TrEMBL record:
Coiled coil region boundaries: none
Protein name as it appears in the record: Protein-glutamate methylesterase/protein-glutamine glutaminase
Entry comment on modification after translation: Phosphorylated by CheA. Phosphorylation of the N-terminal regulatory domain activates the methylesterase activity.
Reaction catalysis annotation: [protein]-L-glutamate 5-O-methyl ester + H2O = L-glutamyl-[protein] + methanol + H(+); L-glutaminyl-[protein] + H2O = L-glutamyl-[protein] + NH4(+)
Compositionally biased tracts (Low complexity): 139-158
Length: 362
């Protein structure tokens, strides 16, 4: 049974979210309180498995409370706040401080939001609980804020398929013709920090899909740009994919890669969600399989669900070298597990070595 504590100053939110969570077998709402002060009193009596936390509250803001939780007893936290839409920087800081996921709620219409998107919150709570269980039973898998990987004793990369030949060598195409595609979801903000900050300038262009709310990805890309040696920015329709640059798909829109002679450009467009996501990793990977074939390298990292698994299989069949983050270093080993199960992965490797694999094969 997953014990959940809801901390939100909105009585309506506490009521509708409690009711939505209680509908799901295996989830028990152990408490629903109005602010972190009441939450601390509750947690001193009964510590929850997962905390669903608003960021903007009286007496103590959610971000300060999150940091206190992580200092005292690291616990999976799902952020659910309107502040994520108005102030993306606060949400990014919450993820860096240890939050597992961020769910953006609207200013009004909370009941309809829970009816329409309550499944996302339930899935996030289950993923957070699973991440907490792994944290208790394994070497710590979460990458600390600042991009330095945890777990010095992480396992080495391994070939997870048994192809008739050795793992595929680095493409002989020019740097401009090579392409790196990375897809990730829950836990991906920290994982991307680790990978992208380790990339050297002058390498192949990179396209990224990170499941994020609309208006969130621009701030995320800007934050990464300030940390990395490569340039990172939110993609715009028609942008070229240039060596030494990283394009992040904007929240709420799909991203495809198109080949034009020896160069690539991105198409950013509206469309129905794929695998319940927009942007979708599958949409990007499938386009990369067509546009770049064996000149591409695909990486699937931490995230719940199966978005990206089938697209990575298409990349693999097209001759691309494909990589999955291993279970020990994933916050949520969902997307990589599905890709491995499909036979889409050439190499499964810890987070700390993904950049090295990219350098070798990219």
């Amino acid at each position: 049974m997953i014990g959940v504590l809801i901390v939100d100053d909105s009585a309506v939110m506490r009521q509708v979210l409690s009711a939505r969570l209680r509908e799901n077998p295996g989830i028990e709402v152990t408490g629903a309180v109005a602010d972190p002060i009441f939450a601390m009193e509750h947690m001193n009596k009964s510590w929850p498995d997962v905390v669903v936390l608003d960021l903007e509250m009286p007496r103590m803001d959610g971000l300060t409370f999150l940091k206190k939780i992580m200092e005292v007893r690291p616990t999976p936290v799902v952020i659910c706040s309107t502040l994520t839409q108005r102030n993306a920087e606060k949400s990014l800081e919450a993820l860096s401080a240890g939050a597992v996921a961020v769910i953006a709620k609207p200013e009004t219409g909370l009941k309809k939001f829970i009816e329409d998107d309550g499944g996302d919150i339930v899935a996030a709570v289950r993923a957070a609980a699973a991440a907490g269980q792994r944290r208790r039973t394994r070497t710590p898998a979460v990458v600390p804020a600042g991009g330095r990987p945890a777990g010095a004793g992480a396992p080495s990369a391994r070939t997870v398929l048994a192809p008739p030949s050795a793992p595929r060598p680095r493409s002989q195409a020019s740097v401009a013709e090579r392409l790196i595609a990375i897809g990730t979801s829950t836990g991906g903000t920290q994982a991307l920090e680790v990978v992208l900050t380790a990339l050297a300038p002058g390498g192949p262009g990179v396209v990224v899909v990170q499941h994020m709310p609309e208006k969130f990805t621009a701030a995320f890309a800007a934050r990464l740009d300030g940390m990395c040696r490569v340039r990172v920015r939110e993609a715009k329709d028609g942008d070229p994919v240039l060596p030494g640059e990283v394009l992040v798909a904007p929240g709420g829109r799909h991203l495809e890669v198109l080949r034009m002679d020896t160069r690539y450009r991105v198409r950013v467009f509206d469309g129905p969600p794929v695998n319940r996501h927009r942007p979708s990793v599958d949409v990007m990977f499938r386009s990369v399989a067509k546009a770049a074939g064996p000149d591409a390298l695909g990486v699937i990292m931490t995230g719940m669900g199966d978005d990206g698994a089938r697209g990575l299989l298409e990349m693999h069949k097209a001759g691309a070298f494909t990589v999955a983050q291993d279970e020990a270093t994933c916050v949520v080993y969902g997307m990589p597990r599905e890709a491995v199960a499909l036979g889409a992965v050439d190499r499964e490797t810890p987070l700390s070595t993904i950049a090295e694999v990219i350098h070798h094969h990219g």
